[in-house]
User: Fold these one by one.
Assistant:
Number 1:
Amino acid sequence: MSEENAKREFWRGARSSVPIIVAVIPFGLLFGALAVDNGISPGKAVLMSAAIFGGASQMVGIELFGQKISPLLIVFSIFAVNFRHVLYSAAIGRHFARWPAAKQAVAFFLLTDPQYAEAERKVEENGKVGFAWYLGMGLALYFTWIAETLLGALFGRLIRNPEALGIDFLLPIYFLGLVMEFRKRPLWLPVVLASAIASTLAYKFVGSPWHVSLGALAGIALAASMPAKRQSARDLAMTAERSEP
C-alpha cells in the first residue's frame, strides 16, 4: 500500500470511530470521576487508562483497590472481566496473522469491544482489515479515552447523581448494540440466548464479575457443539491471502 493510500485509510479509520467516541464519552467521564472518588489522583487515573485501556476492567479495579481484598483476587476479578478479549483476539487475530510482530502487538493492545466489532464488519465488507485503517480507529479511541478520563477526574464531581441521568444504563445498551451488529450470522440467536441465560444464572449464584466469563463460555460451548461449515481449499487460500496488510 502506498503512503498516500495508507494515510487515506488511517483517516478513514479515525472517522469511523466518531460515533463510538460519542457513545463512549459518558463511560470515560464516569471512570475518571469514580477513580477520584475512590482516592486515586487524576494523574494516576490517566496513567491507568493509558496503560490498561479497558473500561470495564478499570471500573472493577478501582472498586476493589483500597479494600481489604487479596491482590490475587483483584487480578483474577479483572481477568474475568477481560476474558472476552482472549476470545476477540482469537477471532480477529487470524485476519492480521501475517502482519509483522510489532504491528500485531499494537493491534492487540488497541483491541477493544468496538474495535473488534468494527474490524469484523470491515472483514465482512472487504474481505480483510488493513493496518492503517485499524490504527486510525484504534488511536482515535485510545487518546479520546485518556482525555475523557482526565476530564472526568477533574470535573466529574459536578454530576451529583449519574443514575438520575441514566448514565449507569448506557453500558448495557452499548453492549447490546454491539451484539446486534452480528445478528445476521448463523446461530446468532441460540448462542446469544445461551450466553444470556448462563450469565444471568452465574450472576445470581456465583456473582460478579465471573458471570461475564461464564456467559461467554456457555455461548462458546454451544457454538463449538454445532456442526461447522466446511471450507474448500480455495476458500482457505483466499482467507489466507486476505490476511495480508
Number 2:
Amino acid sequence: MRYRKLARGGWSISEIGYGMWGMAGWTGSEDRESFEALDRAIELGCNFFDTAWAYGDGHSERLLGETLRRHPGKRLYVATKIPPKNRKWPARPEYTLDDVFPADYIREYTEKSLENIGVDTLDLQQLHVWNDRWATDDRWQKALASLKEQKLVRALGISVNRFQPINVLRALETGLIDAVQVVYNTLDQNPEDELFPACEELGIAVIARVPFDEGSLTGTLTENSRWPEGDFRNLYFHPENLRATLPRIERLRRVVPPGMTMPAMVLRHILHHPAVTTVIPGMRKLSHVEQNIGVSDGTALPPTLVQELKGHRWDRTVDWE
C-alpha cells in the first residue's frame, strides 16, 4: 500500500481507503463477510475508513467500531458524516440551514457517531450534503469549530452533492474545511476544472468517492440489471440512466490495457491526479479488497491512455424535478 499526506493533519493516509456504505446501505451485505473484508484490508495496509450515520442508521459505524477494537495496535483513521436533519439527499436550493444542519443537531449527531464507533475523537467529521448558499452563515461555522476546540473531532469535511463539485468553493474559503469528498471517476471528471485547483491551493484533502459509478465502471452492468426492492441502485440506474450508461461502458471496455481489469484502470486513473488524497471504493468481499488494494503498487497509466480517457468524460447535472 502507498500513502499520501492529508496536508493539514499531516496524516499518512492509504491511497486506497475503504468506503463502508455497501455494508449497511445496500442489499446483500452480511456482517461476517464485512468483518473478513475489513480485517483483510487492514492486513494489506488500508488505514482510512469512511462511514456515515446514515449507512444503516449507525450500523456501518458500529461495524467500524468493532473492527477498531479488533486491531488496537493499528493507527486507523476514522471518517464519518452527519446526516441532513430532513433526511434529503442531495441538498436542494430551497432547503435552509435550519432544515439540514442546525447547530445543536451537528453536536448531537457527532456524539451519536462517537458512541457508535466507540472512540473519544473522530479523525474526520463531515457534513453529508451541502449547499454553498449556507457558506457565510456563522452558525454552522461555530458549531463545527467547537467540535474541534472540544477535541471531539480532529478534522472537518464536506461531502459534496453528486455532480455539483463547485457547490462548495465558498465554504472552502472559510478556512474551516480540511477535506472534501466528491464523486470523481473516469466518467465524472469535472472536479478537475475548479474544485481540485482550489483544494491544491488551500491545502485541502480530496476524498474521491463512487469510483465505480455505483457499479457501472466494474463492467458488469447489463440492460437487465436489477436489484432487490429498496436497493439504491434501482433508483440510480433508472431506465433512462442505464440506457445512457451502457454504451459509454462499452466504449471504455475497448481501451482497457491487456492484462488489466476495468476497475483497476479506473482506480489508477483516479490516483493519477495529484489532488486526490485517497479513493474509497466500497469493498464487501475479500476478492474486492485484494483486487482494489492491489492497484496501490505505484504503477501509473501510460500518458497516452490518460489523455484518451479525458474523452470519456460525461458532464452530468442534477435533475431537481
Number 3:
Amino acid sequence: MKKIVIIGAGFAGLACAASLRPKIRKLNLEVCVISDKDEFSFLPLLPDCLGRRIATGSLIYNIRSFSKKLRFKFINDKVERIDLDKKLIFTNGLNYSYDFLVVASGSETNFYGNDQIRRFAFKLDDAKDAALMYNALEEKDYDSYLVAGGGYTGVEIATNLSVYLKRKKLDRRVVIIERAPQILGQIPGWMRDYVLTNLKELRVEVLTGVSVNTAESAKVGLSNQLVFDNSMLIWAAGVKTSDFIQSLSLEKNPQGRIKVDKCLRFRDNCFAAGDASLFDFKSSPLRMAVQFAIMQGRCIGRNIVNNIERKELIEYKPVDLGFIIPMANNKSCGVVLGFNMKGFLPTLMHYFMCIFRSYDFKNKFWIVKNLLQKGG
C-alpha cells in the first residue's frame, strides 16, 4: 500500500484528493489529509459577509463530509514539523509516515511578529473570522475603520465596509493604509486609476507610504504620527505560509512559499501546491489564485499516479483566465481572457465563478439567495 499524505484541506488539497479517488482501489492507495481546521471556508467570498451580508454558514464545508465522498482519511491536527529525510510528519505528540507528500496548507495572515497587532486587529483567514468581524460591526460603533494593506483583499474589505456603513446610514471614515508608495502595486495603471476613482466615490480614504505602528484596544497609531481613537483595525497587509514550512531547509521566497520544479516537486515524491508553492511562470512567480490552486492539486494527483505506475510525470502548465478585483458597489474591474473589463460585468463574472466553484448545491443555493435578497 502506498501512503499519500496531503497537508491542507483547501482548494489545492481537496482537488488533489479528488483526483486520487478513482485510483484508490486499483493502486491500493491510502490517502490521508491533515488539517488543523475541521471546516473548509470558501475564501473568495469572505469580504462579502460584511457588505453584501452573505451568511458565513453558506461558505463553510465540513471536511469530514468531504472525506467520505472522496474516500480519504481525515486527521484534524496541526502539523508541527516535517522530517523530509525520514519521511515523517510530526503533529502534537503524534507522527505519520508517508510515501508521497503534498504540501497544500495555503497561507495565513502575516503579522510580521507584531504580537500587539495580532492581539487587537481583525483578520480574514476563514469564515469564523468573517463572523467575528461582522458581529463587531453590529455591536460596536467605531468612529473609523482602518484597513492595513492596499492589495486585492484590502480593497475588497474597504469597499464592503463602505457599503455596510451606507446601508446603516452611518457617516464614518474608512481608510486604507498602505506602506508602499501606491496601492495594488503589481496591476496595470488603468486598473489602479479605476480602483482609486471608485474608492473616492465610496468615500474610502487611501494613505500610502504609511504603516501601522501601534495598536491598543481601539486606538491605532501610524508611522506618520497620526492617531485614530475608537477605531476598528483590520489586518490585510500580507500573508505567509504555515510555521512548519518556514522551518524547512528549502528554497523559499520571503512569504515562505516553497520553490517547485515544472512538475510541482520540491523533492523526490514531495510536491507543493496552491499558496504554499512558488512556481515560475513567464519569468516571475505565479500569483496566488484559486484557479491555479485547483489545477495544481489535480496535476499533483495525476503525477503521483504516474509515479506509481512508472509513467513519465507531466509538467504543470498554468492556464491564466485572468483576474478580477471585485468591489462591493458593483464597479469591479479586471482582465478576463485578455480583455479589460470594468463595471457590473466583471462583478457578475466574479460571482458566477464563485458559485460555480462552490462544492455543494445547498451552499450554491444559499449564496445565490443571499446575493439576490440582500443587495448583491
